[in-house]
Amino acid sequence: MASHRRPKQPSRARVTVFGATAAATVALSSQAAQAAETKEQVQERVDQLHEEAAIATEEYNGAKEREGQLQDEVETLQDSAARGQEELNELRSGLGSIAAAQYRTGGLDPSVQLFLSGDPDAYLERASTLNQITGKQAETLQLIEAKQRTLAQQREEATEKLAELEDTRDELKDRKDTIQGKLNEAQSLLNQLTEEERAAIAAAEAEEAAAAQAEAERANRSGSDGRPVLDGSGSSRGQAALAAGATKVGSPYVWGATGPNSFDCSGFTTWSFAQAGVQLPRTSQAQANAGMRVSESQLAPGDIVLFYGDLHHVGIYAGNGQVLHSPGTGKYVEYTGLHTMPFQFGVRVG
Fold first, then answer.
1. Of these residues, 50, 265, 312, 339, which one is catalytic?
2. What is the pLDDT, as a whole number, of residue 281?
3. Catalytic site residue 312?
4. Which of 167, 160, 193, 13 is nearest to 77 (CA)?
5. To 10 degrees, the CA torsion angle through 140, 146, 152, 153?
6. Which residue among 29, 89, 223, 305 sits deepest, i.e. has the most Cβ atoms within 10 Å of its Cβ?
7. Is 265 an annotated catalytic residue?
8. What is the pLDDT of residue 287?
């Protein structure tokens, strides 16, 4: 999520005022100069809150990804334990058949008696006892012993994974509450502005977005260096992802969304590269390690581009100094300049 007001220091996206969450406003009674200053302060605080919400969103995305992985691991362990229990039951049943046959023919073998009445571990440790049982019975007892150990280990591991899964779900709830709280606070601040002030902000944002779109379209036709954006200098998969992402210009930002109709920043890159046959990690920080890192001078269309010191924002380089991304709350997938945000590095995938 990123700001595109070039006269200011790079910051996150200016919030679009008009939308489903707009509420009744409270008119300010101060003088015109004071009102303008208040609007500036409100806008700055709103930007900060959206920045904080963006960071929390990537943390939420990471926790959501861990939740899915843990759920899969728990299910795998539980399935394996269920199969192991069935096999153990079959082994015990087979040994029980031997015992029944021996009983019918004149009594139980001492080895079987010991198994049925005690711990097979202790039993197998005594060489004198092993000499009294058949090779088949010894093999069966050893298999039972191994199965019991494996089952105990799997059940312990499944219990630990379930506890971790519960902790992760608690973390998800906390992150969700944090995000929603910051967005609600931002909206409350906006509600302090007059209708005229909100209209002025919306007009400035619309003008800014139109200028960025026009600049990107000019770059797509022919850049300042005379070459088209999709010039083959980057990876074929990256350029395919850029082409797919370009079809989503105008789609709304929604935190936690991965398309196809709405996206957060890393959700947009994830979806775009999926259309090119590439499965990216879910978070922007993880996507930073999804390929070969490149510097600004090495950037080519289709490269992933990372922003901010903690790498909490990501987009796709579109060539000629333009980035295609999903900026932030109240905004839509759009093109913007590479240096409207603190650029860190690029990543070339495939």
1. 265
2. 95
3. no
4. 160
5. -160
6. 305
7. yes
8. 97
